[in-house]
Amino acid sequence: MASGPQFRLLGPLEVRLEGSAVVLRAGKHRALLAALLLRPNRVVPVTELVEHVWGDTPPARTRGTLQTYVMRLRAALGDPSLIQTAADGYRMRVDPLAVDAHRFADAAARGRAAASSSDLVTARSAFAEALDLWRGPVLSDVPSETLHSEHAPRLTELLMRVHEQRIDVELALGNHADLVPELFGLTRDHPLRERFWAQLMLALYRGSRQAEALEAFRQLDRTLDEQLGIDPSDELRSLHQAILMGAPELAAPVVAREPERARSSPMRLPDDIADFTGRSWHVERVSGLIAGGSVPIVTLAGQPGVGKTTLAVHVAHLLRDRFPDGQLYVDLRGYALGAPADGVDVLSRFLRALGVPPDEIPPDADEQSTMLRSLLSGRRMLLVLDNASAPDQVRPLLPGTASCRVIVTSRDDLRGLIAMNGARTVPVDVFPAAESASLLEKLLGPGDHAELAVRCGHLPLALRVAAAYLAGRGGVTISGSPIELAYAALPPAPQRLFRLLSLVPGPDFTPEAASALADVDADGLLTVLAIARLVVSPVPGRYRFHDELVRYAAMVREEADSPSEQQASWTALLDHYLRGVERCAELLYPGIVRLPSSPTGPAPRISTSAEALAWLDAERPNLIAAIRHAAEHGPAVMAWQLADALRGYLWIGQHVGEWLATAHHGLQAAQKSAHRAAEAAMHANLGTLYLRLGEYTRSVGHHDHAIELYRALGDKDAEAGALNNLSLVHRRSGDLVAAKDTLVRCLEMLRSAPADSVSTGLYNLGQLAVELGEIDSAVEHFSQALTLAPNADSHTYLGMALRLQGRLDEARAHLERALEIGNVPAGESETLENLAALELASGNTGAALSLASRALSLVADGGDQQVATSVRITLGETHRALSDFDTAAKLFEQALTTARRIGFASGEVRALIDLAVVLRDLHRPADSRSAADQAVRRSAELGLRALENRARELA
């Protein structure tokens, strides 16, 4: 990658300077910069720039205003020479590879060249590099119609071609099976792009899925006819004919397959610092130890501010090619004022980065650590564990395999890692005088900086803060601590914000959070702090600062701000977080009942579900830290309110470890404040969580506590809700009689409750009736639910029951209505699965296959696993109808494994029955009888009479 500023146009416009984001808030400034970047090192005439920036409505003083904009861009970029003035326009002097759009074109060209010379592995790597640069629609936040019309179509078309070329390479490497899900998505998103359809047909055919390949052609034929009135191209027709004939030239190539890990390598390092200076001995030493093969762990030990993190990240970037399976990074916050990084959270993040679906990540740290070691076995990966305070903080994250290496940074030498884990310590001291001088010359220009370096103690952090303080203050000298001077030089408002930011318990903060904390508009103040190097912006819109700066800020806060002012600011920050979570809850899961709260501040600017999910994903570590801190130090009410508001997100996202932590902190806070309604809600929260984990005894215990508390409070609606959830526990554990009794009690209490609450109880009673084979009762319950709450779920469940009754036309009407209304992914998947089963019952196997495949794509990776189990069963039944017995057997086995893991009793029996049938088709009678016998025993234990009868027919 080119050194100096980095520019990103493939998505929202971003500028990064020395590792920090440069924020351009004015849309016209972004349009001007984009126009120059798209033609680097070439003069762009003023007339064109005016058109790009103002369109048809230029200002009266066009040239003067444009000059002002250029001046502001130069100031923002920190180097006036980047934008040069020419006779009739302006030129952006920049390495084209510093602009992602040009880097994308370069990587794509390298990929094509490698592919043409049959170097397929290099081609795949280059194409993947090109595609990784895209973060969204090109120039998505640049308000310029002419730039969009001139450049977006060209770049988007090039993106599509790179997708096609990469897929051609993957097909040539024999990776057809892995491409099918991606190609289903590409053909859905680009239904008129025939090349994707051809690739999908070929991938399906090579995976022994000939019927699906032919159905894909028919689907394209219909689409082209309906939308354009044309036929598929001759190329597509020839491919279709070849698939029909089973042409041998379509067979998959015989290649040496690479392991899956080479196709999913997480690159999670922070950006390397652009002006890295000195440390040549350390770089060589650490690189030699890591690359030499005999030292598994290198610990960089040194005082705070000495540059350990910068050195570790720099070396990790230099060694990336030696670790092709990826690099992982985490800040363990071992010396932070607040709590250190939670082990479960860190392990969960690593496992997600390595491709583990959220629902498969165990909640226990020891189990997560074991899973991590298993995944890293044999892989060549580099882990950077930053700011570790003790060996025990590091050990759960160690790979335990000779192929991986670890760099740890710490203020201590962590001798326990030396004795027990073979670590080697590399001390990191302050800069030598020459390196201090070199850094200061880079930051301040030529001059005699020896005295300044001595006053800074040759400490890199102090040198950078001092240089930021002196920049623009010609002739000023430093006498005292650079951090103290930088703080003292600030106006009162930035000083106050700097102090209060030390209250933030999490790893970073946004301008909105800072504004709430200090009760000011913090945008400009944060810019002042960033210029002074007292905070940094590692990614656009987010800020953090060094632990030592946090400690100094906390010290001056205690001196300057009264306890009441500090408490008010802390409460305001919690209020901001609560308003944000509640706003997201309204958008993402409005049907989940939450405890009442009364936040007073403005809500973050969140208007769509996508924005809500992005906000929660970004703020999750801060929210968890805030809940923990509030539970331990107060105000307790905010801890349980945040935990309650966040549970829907943690449930949907399957963030099990975080869910467990926040629920326990919320319960602790509710008990501490003697708030019985909150205590009941937290018990109910934990009951739901343990149900999700399949720990039914614990789930029953927490639900019983919640029911007792709600009964004592006289809250019948909440008690009924807890009873409803308790019935689910009994149902999942196989005690269907207890489940039915509990549901009946629940519905008796819900007679005067809101319609949504009653309908939820009816849903569960109807589903229980389906499991018991009481289909007429199920239709009755679902019909009542539909009358009370005519939503997508009601139509889906009634459609399912009607299908099971054989009333296919009525079932279709309800299922199609459910799709029209719309639903969350799990709900939509259920609807599609039932439509697939309906089409299968009608003999339309092609349509069934398409619908079931779409259903699985919505829930396969981290979605509701009970729904995913049912979808896999229906998809397997469809493959069996197409005589694809091997695929069907695999799907039934996957469904059986998942059903047993989550305690989905009827799903387990259904999977066993279908597996028995397909094993018989595969001429494996002994295995078939074994599956049927298991189905008989399990269905008899559970009281599933209808399924038991089916199983006995096979045994």
From TrEMBL:
InterPro entries: AAA+_ATPase, AfsR-DnrI-RedD_regulator, BTAD, NB-ARC, OmpR/PhoB-type_DNA-bd, P-loop_NTPase, Sig_transdc_resp-reg_C-effctor, TPR-like_helical_dom_sf. GO terms for biological process: phosphorelay signal transduction system; regulation of DNA-templated transcription. It comes from the Bacteria. TPR repeats lie at residues 759-792, 869-902. CDD domains: BTAD. PROSITE patterns: OMPR_PHOB, TPR, TPR_REGION. Keywords: DNA-binding, TPR repeat, Transcription, Transcription regulation. One of its GO terms (molecular function) is ADP binding. SUPFAM superfamilies: C-terminal effector domain of the bipartite response regulators, P-loop containing nucleoside triphosphate hydrolases, TPR-like. Residues 1-94 form the OmpR/PhoB-type domain. Residues 1-94 bind DNA. PANTHER family: TRANSCRIPTIONAL REGULATOR REDD (PTHR35807:SF1), TRANSCRIPTIONAL REGULATOR REDD-RELATED (PTHR35807). Belongs to the AfsR/DnrI/RedD regulatory family. This is DNA-binding transcriptional activator of the SARP family. The lineage of its organism: Bacteria, Bacillati, Actinomycetota, Actinomycetes, Pseudonocardiales.
